[in-house]
Every structure is written in C-alpha cells, then in structure tokens.
Amino acid sequence: MPLAIELKSITKRFGAFVANEDVNLAVESGKIHAIIGENGAGKTTLMNVLFGLLQPDEGEIWIDGEKKSLPNPAAAIDAGIGMVHQHFKLVPSLTVAENVFLGMEIRKGGLIDHAAQIKRTAELSKQFGLQVDPTERVGLLSVGIEQRIEILKVLARGARIIILDEPTAVLTPQESRELFQTLRGFVAQGMTVIFISHHLEEVMEVSDNVSVLRLGKNVATRPTAELTKSDLVQLMVGRLVSFDRLPRTPTIGKTVLEVEDLWARDDRRLPALRGVSFGVRAGEIVGIAGVAGNGQTELAEVLSGLRSSSHGSIKLNGRTITGASAREIRAAGVGHVPGDRLVRGVDRNASISMNLLMGRQDQSPWSTHGIINRNYLLEQTQALIKRFDIRARGPESTAKSLSGGNIQKIVLAREFTGSADCLLIDQPTRGVDIGAQESIHGEIMRQRDAGKAILLISVQLDELIRLADRILVMFGGTIMGEISGDRVDEEEIGMLMAGVVPEPRSNTLGAA
Amino acid sequence: MEVLERLLNVTLVIATIRTTAPILLVALGGSFTTKAGIFNIGLEGQMLVGAFFAVIGTIATGSPWLGVLCGIAAALTLALIFALLVVSFKANEVVVGLALNILAGGLTVSLMKAIFGTRGSIFGHGLVGLPPLKLPNVKDFGWFGQMISGYTPLVYAAFILVPVLILFYNRTRLGLYIRVVGEKPEAAEALGISITRIRYVSSLLCGLLAGLAGAHLALGYTTMFTENMSSGRGFMAVAILIFSNGDPLKILLGCLLFGFSDALSLRLQTLGISSYLVLAVPYLVALIALFALSYRSRPRAIQETLASMGRALSVKSNTIKPAAATDASKP
Amino acid sequence: MSDRFDSLFGQGLAILFALGLGALVILTVDESPVRVFVTLLNGAFGSPERIAGTLLQTTPILICGIAACISFRGGLFNIGIEGQLFMGGFWATWVGFSFNLPPALHLLLAMAAAVIAGMAWIAIPAFFRARYKTNEVVSTILANYVAILFTSYLTINWFKRSGGQSETPPILQSAYLPELFSFSRLNWGLVIGLVLAVGVYLFFTRTSRGYAVSEMGANPKFAEYGGIDIKKQTFLVLIASGAVGGLAGGVEALGVHHRFMEGFAPGFGFDGVIAALLANGNPIGTIFTALFFGALRSGSLLLEVDTTASREIITVIQALIILAVSAQITIRRKASDSTAGERRWKF
User: Fold this and answer.
1) A205 and A291 co-located in one domain
2) Is A150 in the same domain as A263?
3) A169: CB partners within 8 A, 6+ apart
C-alpha cells in the first residue's frame, strides 16, 4: 500500500522550545489515521507543518511517494491536502455556496457566477453525503452544519488527503456519528483521512491506525485494533495514569449556592442553558463535566454576573442574586476564575500587583479613602507570589511576561484570598504545564478544606475525578446526571456526556 | 401655505440632489474602508486636499478634467499614507486619521498663501468648473426632465456609483474579499487572501472617491476653493457609515437625508432664520440620526417565560440536534 | 526604566524625522527651513514678553490636553474638546457680564459656569456612548461644529455689544482671572493647568477610582469581570473630560480675552488632543508637549511677520509629528499583542 504521507525527521522549534522533534510519520493511503496526544504534545504543530502553515526546521515531507516542499497552504492544497480546522473560518453574512468557493470563485465575464457555485455545491453535497442548503446564510446555521461546509470547502479544492483537527470537539454525539460515516465514505472512495483527537473512544471506534505524540516526539504508530484504551493512555502520558482522587475529609456544610431552573442564551441568541438546577455546599467541590460547548461557559458567566439569565433563580447563602451585577455578586462573596484567562482574568500589560488589586481596590486595607495603599499592595503581592509560587522577576513584572501557569496562579492568588464563600472555577489548568497543575490542584483542595463552596468546571475528566466530591454532567445545556466522586464509572460518565440517559427518564428530554 | 410652497418644490429636489452628491461620493468611498474593517476618520482631509488640488490642477492645466485627476491624486496620496501607517505599521486608526485631517487643513492653507498670496478663497485665476450636462430631449419631460438634467457630471457619477458598488460587493471577487477581510479576517488569512493587500486597496479606493468628492465640491458644486471647504462633510459621512455599516443602499438613504436637510435649511435662511442656526442643521441631523439609530439597534434584554423559551426551541430545533431520544432505550 | 527611555528615545527620533519632513514642506513654499525654525524659536523664547506669550498659548493647550488625557485613560476619544471649550468660554463670559458680584464670588461662579457648560455639552454624546456604545469620536466632532455655530449665533444675535464688533460686552472686572505679571496677559490659568496636570496624574496612578478607570481603558473585559460598572464609569470619564474642556474655555474667557467673540480661542481643543497623544496620555508629559505646541504657536506669530510662510506651517509640522510618532510606537510593538479584550474600535 503506497503511503499517502510520509513525514521524515520533522523538527520544528519556536525559539528554545522544540514543538516537534525528529518526527517520523507514515500515513497509509485509503485509511483513517488518528493522531493523539496531550496538550502541547505537538499534534497541531505537526499538522500545520503538513498543511504548509509552518515551515519545518529540519526534515522532509513526502506525498504519494514524491518529495514536496510546502511553503504555504496553497502548495499543500495543490498537493491534494485539505485541512478542516478546529475553529471554523466561515463568513456569517455570506451563503454556504459563497463560503465554499471563497478564494476560488467561479466567474463568468469577470463577475462571480453564483448560480454555478450553488449548483456545484449541491453536487458535492450529494456526492459526499454532506447535507447543506447552498443558498442559506452561514450566520444562521448550527456548528454541525458549519463543519460540513468546512469539509465541502476542502473537497471543492480537490483534496484527496483530509486532515481534521479535533473535529468532534464541537459536535453532538449524533453529529459525530454522522461525521464518522462521512469519513468512512471518504476512504471508501480512496481518500485518506487524518484526524487529531483527544477522544479515545472515537479514536478506537473509527480509526484504522493511530499515532501517539508525546512531548514533541512520535512515540508509536500502530493499527488501532492492536491497542487498548489504557495502552493509548499510557503511551500518551508515559506513565500509568492513576485516576486517583486526592484524599479528603468530609467537611461538607450547608448549601451556599443554589441554582434553580436556570435558562440563558448564548451570544448567538440560541438557548445555552435549559433549566439547570443544582446546589453547592460549603466545603464541597461540585464538578461540572461535559464536552466544551454544552453550556458550561454560559453557566459560569451567568453565575458571575457577566451574562444575564432569561429564567430561573440563583441564591447565595439564601439571598437571591439573580440578575445582580458582577460587582454585586463579587461583593456577595463569589470569586471567579474565568475560563478565558487572558481576556477576562488578567490585564496582560499590567504588573502582577495591579492584577491582584482588581475587584477589591475600594476595600480597606487595599485603599483608604480612595487612595491605594502602595505599601500594603506591595507586601501582599510579595506574600502572594511566595505562597502561590508564582515564578516571576518581581511584583512589577507584567502579566504577559509570565507563562500560562503563572498567569493562572495570579488569578488564583486574587480570587482565593478574598472574602468569597463560593468559588466558580472554569478550566483551572487549561494550557498549564504539569508541574503547575499539581500546585493548582493542591490550592483548590485547600480552599475546599477551608470550607469554601466550589463549582469546578472542566473539560478534563481526570481533573474532575481527582478533585470533585460530586460530578454533574452537562450536555446540551442541561444536567444529564450526577455521579458521586468516589464511585466514578468512566463509561457511565462518557454516556452522560454524550447525552445518553442510562435509565429510563420522563419524556421531557425529547420534548425539545 | 405660501411658505410651504416656497420651501417645497421641484427646485428643492434639485437642490437636494446637488447637496447630496458630494457627501454621497465621499461616503461611498468610505464604504470600502468600512467594509474592510478599518475605521477611517480621515475622509474629511482626503476630501479637502481633493478639492484644493483639483483647483490647482485646473488652474495649471486649464482643464477641469485634469484638475479632477489632480484632486484624486492628492487624496490618493493621503490614503496611501493612511494605509501605510494603519495597515503596515499598525498605528491607531483614529490618531492617524485625525492627524491626516489636520495635515490636510494646514497644508492647503499654507500652499494657498504661498501660491496665491491670500487665504480665504481661491477663485478666478482662470478657474474653470465642470460643465453641466444637459440631457437631450429634456423639455419633453417637463418638471421631471428639469429634475434630472443639468447637473455637473460628478453628480450623475455619485448616484450611478450606488448600483455599481452594490454590484461590486456582491458580484466581484475584490468586493467579496473586502467584505471577508472586514467581517472575518481569519477566514481571509486561511484562504491565502492577503489582508494587507485588500486593506491597501480599499484605502486607495476610498481615496479615489473622496478625492472625486472634493473635486466635485470645488469644480462642480461651486467653482472655487475655500479654506476648510469640506466643513465637516467627511465626518457626517463617517456617521452615515457607522449606521449603514457600509451598505451602499443605506448610504444613499442617509446621504439623501442629509442632503435634504442641508438644502431645506438653506431655504430656511430666506425666512430670516439666522444663518448660524441654519448651518448647524445638517450637523444636528447627523447627530440625531446617529443617536436614534444606536438606540434602535440596541440589544434587547429578554424576560423569558418557559413558554417563550419553548417556542424559541421548537423554531430552532432543526439547527440544534440534541441526542436522538430513541437511542436511550437501546441497551 | 530603560523601557521608558527606549520609548522616549524612539519618540525623539520620530519627532526629528517629522521635523525633517517639515523642512521639506517649508522648502516647497519657497522658504528657508533654517530661517523658519530660527524665527519660531525667536518668536517663542526671544524675550520675557515672548516667553510669557508662549506660556499664554500653552495654558489652554495644557488644560485641553489634560481633558484629552482623562478620556484617553478611560479608553475613550473625546475629540469634542474644542466645542466644550467654546461653550465653556461663552457661558463664563455670560456670567461675567450679566451679573454684578463681589470679585472672588463672581470669578468662581463664572468658572463654575464654564465647567458646567462643558459637562452639559458632552453629556448627550457621553450618555449614548455609555449606554448604547455610540461612537464618541464622530458624535463629539460633529458637536464641535454645532458648538462653534451656536456660540456665534448667541454672540451675534443675542448678546452683541453695541458698536459694530462681533463680540459680547466685556466682562466685569470682578470676574477677571488675575494676571501673573504686569507685562503680559499670562494669568493664573497656567497655575490651574499645572495643578490639574499633577492632580490628574496622581488620581490615575494613586487612587482606587483612577485604577478602575485605567483598567477599563486598558482591558474593558477584565474590568467588567472585576465588577467595574463600565457604563457608569464611561459616562463619568467623558463628563470629567468635558468639564475640563469647559474649564479651558473659562480660563481663556476670564483670563485672556475678557469677552467672547467669533473665532474665540480657535484650535486649542485640537492642539490639546494632539499634545495628549504625543505624551501618550500622560498628564505630566502633556505639560511638556503642550509647552512645545505653545511655543510653536507663539513662534508662528512672528513667522507671519518675518517670513513668507504662513502660520499654518506649524499645523503641518504638528500633524507630521503625530504621524511619525504613531508609526514609531508600533514599530516597537509586536504584532501579536492585541487580544480580543483590548481592541476597542467598534463601529
């Protein structure tokens, strides 16, 4: 079987950081090849090299048995490679057909021939089983359909090798199934598929071969059938992963946060929260599990006052805070570690001390009669840098000069040392290196032991298993089920995350 | 009644069309930068240099058409500087735009004094304006014919450009790419469309029309150059661009509104209203329109009942697919 | 520390470059650049009277510059300072000639009128910016035109003094802002400006409210997350900026002209904005840039007399400096710097 792609000794560096180190990758033609690895293992970098978005520092790229140089995406497209990115790049005000042909418009007499584009889009749609309406404006369509359009774009350019970056991250399970069917259809027509994924189940289900990247190197490439899930996990992480929970003593007190029948819309005015109800007690960590995009972000925003709800109630220590402003909610005793760290959580150009001041600049002893107490600020900053182990040159270092983990520590230092009873923590260790992760987890446990009520939202299931007392699984804006932290069944969680209800429930689920 | 009659008649329509033309031209020019995602507050300056150099060019060559070209060239120069600083050097658009406006103001007066020895206005010196176009057989159409004939060429150009631009944005590649760059630059990047190049092109196209607008002011609308001639029309165009979002049809409507208020207010002067107040009317209209339309397009808070949420869900149910409930029953 | 030196050095280079370009422009109008620059220097600093004259021109530019600094710090662009200055100047004058009060009280009342007029003039654009995110650049600029026309209207049609000149009656002595020296109209407005500069600087760097506003300007999403009421603070920042703009008008009316006329204090508002831009929004820096522009203005008066160049040449030079500096600032900045929360120019 000829090799569709052969990457030989690819090395890519960013300054001192080696993203890909001497990677050899062989992708068989006509197969589905999965690439898995942890955050920062180098998967996306490697695919960007293959797609011509990045130039390797060393190594060769061979496509269909020919050595090729890919200085830009156009060259990759010419070579028959198409890439469907994780974040779609569609123009909302244009129609499906216009988006598909963007960059390669069909023209007649100097003007764009919309009719021809619509016709061709419909043809491709039929040929590959990707249902779309070519005349619809993209801005109104769901994420699943948007992905189809991205795939059509790639197909319209004659791609024979298709790369997909985390394709199921934004899809419902039904949509994922449809996608896999589509992918199988591709290989049946002789095309080659490469996809990057975190989702072990899917990788096991649909791929023929799998490569595992770890810390920039390709540690293994095998036929998927030969491996078990724990084999894969071991290869990815390099150690036997113990989904071990952190030891804990029962400290649970009264209910601090009470959410009842909460509804809210997302930025596209579509319902994001559909009747969410739960409570968080003092000294308890309640985890919110789920694939990204199922309403978790909106939940954190509503609870912290950054987004308004359209129905339902939120109570803190018995006091209703529904509809309160961010300021009022903070004052009421809620701390928020936002998922969007660099935009919401810090001012990148400000110093550490200035970042620590946010939210309490009017409180004594940070300020007196409106004037900031600089000595106090400096003292506190130094103390917090020490306590949270923030690696920086000094209190005046700007946030943007620090690593992701250290920036997060600034946020924690600020939110965990206020007078909050309740902490909303969204993706605490996203983009944070392993070492910092440990210390962040430790801090969270300390807060729990001190009696704070903690809502922990994370897409990393093992993080939740480690930390949470209870885990609520969110799917499609609702809570699908609750699992006790010490009796976690991965399969059960997986199904809940997939929107599948294990035992018979009332019909309300299907009512929408 | 007689007052009304004096105010509203065919000549008012004609006056409206005349006053609309310059602001329409510059606003259409601004649509290129707006659609490309650039906030260009330098329209005023581009118009001003367009007017000044149109006059210079006409006096130097004797031909108003060559003068128009000179005006365009001057505005293009300013547009190029704008693009260079904002697109390539990534300087702040407002700062650069304002600075260019100030530059235009200072430069035109300095040159005026240096070349003509006066400030205030330039007229005479062999300055020839653009010839008004008389459409054939106009008499056969009565007052309608009166209304559409006799304008200088750039007036016709202004109105014709509206459908031309609509076609441009919808049916040409460049127009499409400009929209993409403004609406979703990541998409442009991913497709190998050079955002830089597109933004340069839109800046230059903007300069082209702004220069044309200025040339029209100095050679068509009047036949002279006055210090600070554009008198805020460039800013009014920016206001129009903000609430039209660069859409040519909406721009036309906005400009007609201002042209009308401008023409009407000039008539009010004949009723004895102070010229200061009259001159303020177009700016006030622009402000009111700006505020009114911001108010109208405000995001509305939603107080939902479950029922309305349910309705919203059922309408959208074909776009968001939750897991098929049928699977739940399978073991 | 060296970071700041770096940027000042770069800015200095940019200014030199702009001056070079300015020299070219001067050549095209058939004058000698050297002669122009020497005349400017002479006109600005050539004698005690001239120095006082320079400081006289500096005062309104400084105060307007502070007004601009206030708005920039909050991430907003109040370009309507010119209009606020006109309104402030007019109403201060009106109080000045309409009432008869003991000196200190009269002056205070007139100044208060100036400040209130400035605030009132920016109130509607400020409201719409705060509440509906209406672009304040356009609304304040358009308001400038209205202010200038409106004050002219009031002056000519309502309050014209008898005797044919296009101006209001003179204000009473009791409303005068006292002079500093006998040989010049230089007045206490300069002191007011300096005090304001220091005060505003301290406000933004040392107070908690100043911190809140600074963060709002730097990263509004972060500020919102931290509980800062963006709408309210946006409104207050613009109102404060308008108040200081009005104050500048008051100083000009009560300290320099002692009456209001058409063409009252033209261009100081814009010069203030440019001075603030050049100083990067720093009130202390604005003292120096305002002095620079004041010197240019003052020197240019001599220019009209002694050379064939017109005084608008300095406008050209000012614009060139701004353009050069705006490019320089970003040469040093990495392209990857802007994030979603920091880019604030929306239509």
Assistant:
1) no
2) no
3) A86, A198, A291, A292, A293
